[in-house]
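Working notes for the structural subgroup meeting. M.R. asked for a predicted model of this chain before we commit to crystallization trials. I am recording the input and output together here so anyone reviewing the notebook later can reproduce the run.

Input as submitted:
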Amino acid sequence: MSNSTELNNTFAALANSTRRAILARLADGDATVNELAAPFDMSLPAVSKHIKILERAGLITQGQEAQYRPCTLNAVPLEALASWTEQYRHIWEARFDRMDDCLKQMKGTTNE
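Returned structure, recorded in token form:
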């Protein structure tokens, strides 16, 4: 799979707040589908669909322990996403610097 396809899959998976919440929960440690579904007001099959999307994007893996299938966070796609966004850091830092200069200038004119 190409890097572009992987980034597209990661962005698509992260576009949904439920999936981001599932990842946030998994950042604290492995969890079963039932544990992941508990805080949501949706059916277990609906949560399972979100998990499948995260799994296809490579963001989580599901193991097999007896009758349990614990989900585990896989941070590798997030690292690739962070690397991609890093190339744009200089742009938004420059914009924040210009905004800071503008705010300082505005503050200076109101204090006179």
